Amino acid sequence: MLRPSLALLVPFLFAFSLPASAGGIDATTVTCSELAEAEISQSSDDHFGAAVLLSWMAGYHATEEQGTVVDFEALKADVQRTVEYCKKHPKVGVYSASEKFMGENATDVSSEAVDLATIKCQRIVEAANEDDKDGLAVIMMWLAGYYASYAEDKIIDKERLQQQGYEVGKACAQSTETGLITVADKVMQHE
User: Fold this and answer.
1) Domain enclosing residue 24, as ranges
2) Are the beta carbons of 121 and 82 closer than 8 angstroms?
3) How far apart are alpha carbons 123 and 176 in whole angstroms?
4) Whole-number average pLDDT of the chain
5) 60 and 148 in contact (C-beta within 8 Å)?
6) What is the number of structural domains in the chain?
7) pLDDT tens, 122-180?
8) Residues in Cβ contact with 94 at an 8 Å cutoff, skipping those fewer than 6 apart
9) In terms of DSSP bridges, do strands 155-156 and 25-26 run parallel, antiparallel, or are they unpaired?
10) What's the pLDDT band for 92 if we cut at 50, 70, 90?
11) Cβ(52)–Cβ(139) under 8 Å?
C-alpha cells in the first residue's frame, strides 16, 4: 500500500484525502519499491497517486525544448516504462528512475501533443464540471512539477498544492478566456 504521505497525490484540484508529513514529501525519497507496491495494490487511490506522482515528475523533468508541450499518450508510455523499471529495481528512487524515461529521454511527441500554453481556462472549468478529475489532476500535477523544476524544489507540499489549485481554479472560473499558463505563471511560480 502506498505510504500515507504519498496519498497526498490523490487530488481533485489538489484536495487530498490523507494527511502528508509536515512540509510535504521530498520527491527524491520515494522508492521504486513503493511505486511497485502501489502498482499491484487493489486500491484505486494507490494507482492514481502513483500516476499523478509520475505526472509531477514528468513536468519536473520537462526540458526547455519541450516547454509546455505534453503528449498524454506518450506520457502514459513513459509512466509505464518507469513503473516496469521500478519493478526490476526496487531500491532505486522513483525520481532517478523517472529521469531515465522522461525529460530528454521521453518518448517523442506525436501530432496528438498539446501545448498547455494554448489551453484556455474555459477548458479547465469544463473538465472540472464534467467531473474529469483524473485528466485535470494529471495536468495540474504536471504543471506543479514543471514550475517546481525552475525553483529546483523537489518537495511536493500538500498545503502549497491545495492553495495553488484553489487559486488556479478561482482565477480560471473568473476569466475563462485567459490562458491556463498565464494563470499558472502567476499562481504556481515559486518565489
Assistant:
1) 4-188
2) no
3) 8
4) 84
5) yes
6) 1
7) 988 888 777 666 788 889 899 999 999 999 999 988 888 888 888 898 899 899 999 99
8) 27, 30, 31, 32, 34, 35, 53, 54, 57, 82, 86
9) antiparallel
10) very high
11) no
